[in-house]
Write a structure and sequence with these properties.
The chain has 616 residues and is an alpha+beta fold. It is 49% helix and 21% strand. The protein has four domains: 2-36 and 310-438, no CATH class; 54-190, Beta-Lactamase (2-Layer Sandwich); 198-306, PAS domain (Beta-Lactamase); 446-612, Heat Shock Protein 90 (2-Layer Sandwich). It is elongated, with a radius of gyration of 35 Å.
């Protein structure tokens, strides 16, 4: 008896140690995954920053090109009367201003010494160009400190950014020469950078909270989604508005950006687009660009925690489950200790022998699983966790069944124990389904009613997806029977519906819809499949399963790649690229027919055609 007690105590201690070690490695794994996710997010932001920088440079170049075309078309000269010029070039001026989409409402002409001669104003409401007093545009000349460089470097596209009443501007220059080649004057176009930002960068979308911003070489905000931030030094200016905030990390950011042409880093700051900014941890990427005489840093920030929420929640839930299992082990050990005295030594020995056999079998399955694991990246972590969960569920199921036998006369306790047993068995079944993909098992195929099997599988999967998704079924009954493993059919439908659900998550202005249809295959497809069939027993009847969604559709150039393993267009926390690969593997296993129809903006439909024996 003492020996038995000692063995049981050792086993309980070992399981407790195993749980503690599992929690440690779960936390360690979380740290590694978080670092990897952060690095991936920063790389994405850096690519986005490079893209935004190119958009700004190209857009600014287009505006200067438009000014150049206007100068060539209008042929404005120092000696011209502005009224005469306006009369002859009204159409060109109207087209010019209208194309800039409210980014400017002024255009003026200065002589080679910088004295304004003519000024035009664009009335956006009336769609009309008016002549105004040249003195009204003097602030655009006085605040542009780079205007002097225009005379030294007349080929400059535009000057540096400047501010008037907390609004950022940049002046575009176009040199006007006489027929003899001497400089007659300059066309000056002041561009409102706030309007430019709204037209090109305001709607720049990330998968998480964040936005682009532009600063000049003095670290003053030039373009920002919050108008109040424009014209502020990122530290001194903000300290005046929010003196109680912590700016130590922003100082580090400023120093780093001033000493590097591009980069990425993590720092603490605030979301300035909130009514009451709260401190957050951000990931950021930046790049310096030259636009004419302006030298700007383009930066994109994103919420660090928002990118890692799923990982954090996963680790918290996993740790909670492990701790819960630890508590269950302790409770079960106490329960066993109290009732063990009533059992015979022979029963104890049989129970221990049975447990040891189960552990050896589980251990053998684990070795085979690791040896045959095809998922080199996510597969190792996933199968390890599933296998460990399976180990935890085995004693729970066994002990719960024992408790049900001993307390069958207590209806309240019996109901609770049955609920525990049902949940554990569901968890064990889920674990087994995951293991099937990475470990070969004996195939057990049965003849099943295809309509009923698809209906059951769709109903089970429908319980998983959110209620806001409209899942519609149109299943014709009594279409026939086919021989397969029902779990394969469930996995196929699960992956296709999951894929459809993830596609419809991008819908912003319409409800997410998924349609499952089961009907006889078309005559054309039936004829084609009969000709191409290599089956020993000819099949005359085919049934088609169609799963459609109203998502954004799949681009034509990607339709052949989506079935490749590990190919995915989703983010790291949404998919691994194995779902549709699993579908093609199951289709190939049974020699079924797979096709898809997708139209961008309208949705995607997958078609699986099965050979069946008609029930008629």
């Amino acid at each position: 008896m003492k020996r038995t007690n000692r063995i049981v105590n050792i086993m309980i201690a070992a399981m407790t140690l195993f749980i503690v070690v599992s929690v440690f490695f779960a936390i360690r794994g979380f740290s590694i995954i978080r670092k990897t996710t952060t690095a991936s997010g920063q790389d994405f932001l850096l690519q986005s920053t490079e893209y935004v920088g190119k958009v700004i440079q190209l857009s600014m170049k287009n505006r200067h090109q438009a000014l150049n075309y206007l100068a060539i078309d209008g042929n404005l000269k120092n000696s011209d009367d502005p009224a005469t010029y306006l009369k002859s070039s009204a159409s060109s001026l109207n087209t010019f201003f209208d194309s800039l989409n409210n980014e400017t409402d002024s255009l003026f002409y200065i002589d080679p010494e910088g004295t304004p001669l003519y000024a035009f104003h664009w009335d956006a409401k009336k769609k009309e160009v008016l002549i105004v007093d040249p003195d009204t545009i003097r602030p655009f000349i006085r605040h542009d400190l780079s205007l002097k460089q225009l005379f030294d470097k007349p080929t400059a596209q535009n000057g540096d950014s400047y501010f008037i009443n907390k609004k950022a501007y940049v002046n575009f220059y176009q040199e006007i020469r006489t027929a003899s080649g001497t400089v007659d004057g300059y066309l000056i176009l002041p561009l409102n950078l706030e309007a430019f930002y709204k037209n090109f960068l305001q709607d720049f979308e990330l998968d998480y909270k964040g936005y682009p911003m532009i600063k000049d070489r003095s670290m003053t905000v030039v373009m920002h989604p919050v108008a109040q931030q424009v014209g502020l030094d990122i530290i001194n200016g903000r300290e005046k508005l929010y003196p109680d905030f912590d700016y130590s990390d922003l100082k580090r950011l400023e120093k780093y950006q001033l000493n590097h042409n591009s980069g990425k880093l993590t720092y603490k700051s605030y979301w300035w687009d909130e009514d009451t900014p709260t401190e957050v941890l951000k990931i950021s990427a930046f790049e310096w660009i030259d636009v004419g005489l302006a030298h700007w840093v383009v930066a994109i920030n994103a919420d660090y925690n928002e990118r890692n929420d799923d990982i954090i929640n996963f680790v918290i839930v996993l740790s909670f489950l492990l701790v819960l299992l630890l508590l269950l082990i302790i409770v079960c050990s106490l329960f066993i200790h109290n009732f063990r005295k009533k059992e015979t030594i022979e029963a104890e020995n049989r129970q221990l022998i049975e447990k040891q056999k189960q552990q050896k079998m589980q251990h053998q399955l684990e070795l085979e699983l690791y040896q045959r694991n095809k998922m080199e990246t996510v597969g190792l972590l996933t199968t390890s966790i599933v296998h460990d969960m399976n180990n935890f569920l085995t004693p729970i199921i066994g002990n719960t069944q024992l408790l049900l036998e001993e307390h069958g006369d207590d209806p309240i306790l019996k109901a609770d124990l049955e609920e525990i047993l049902h949940s554990a068995q569901k968890g064990k079944q889920l674990s087994s389904n995951v293991l099937r993909f990475s470990k070969p098992q004996k195939s057990v195929q049965e003849w099943i009613d295809i309509s009923a099997a698809i209906g059951v599988a769709t109903h089970l999967i429908g319980e998983i997806i959110p209620k806001k998704v409209q899942l519609s079924l149109s299943i014709q009954e009594n279409l026939g029977t086919t021989k397969l493993e029902e779990t394969d059919l469930q996995n196929l439908i699960y992956n296709l519906i999951t894929n459809a659900y993830q596609a419809t998550k991008e819908n912003s202005n319409k409800q997410q819809k998924i349609q499952v249809t089961v009907s006889p295959a078309s005559k054309e497809l039936t004829v084609l499949l009969k000709k191409s069939s290599h089956r020993a027993t000819p099949i005359d009847t085919f049934v088609t399963l169609e799963i459609s969604d109203n998502g954004p559709g799949i681009p034509e150039e990607l339709q052949e790649k989506i079935f490749e393993p590990f190919f995915t267009t989703k983010s790291a926390d949404e998919g691994t690229g194995l779902g549709l690969f699993a579908v093609t593997s199951i289709v190939a296993k049974y020699e079924w027919h797979l096709s898809l129809v997708s139209e961008e903006g309208r949705g995607t439909s997958f078609f699986i055609t099965f050979p069946v024996h008609s029930s008629k």
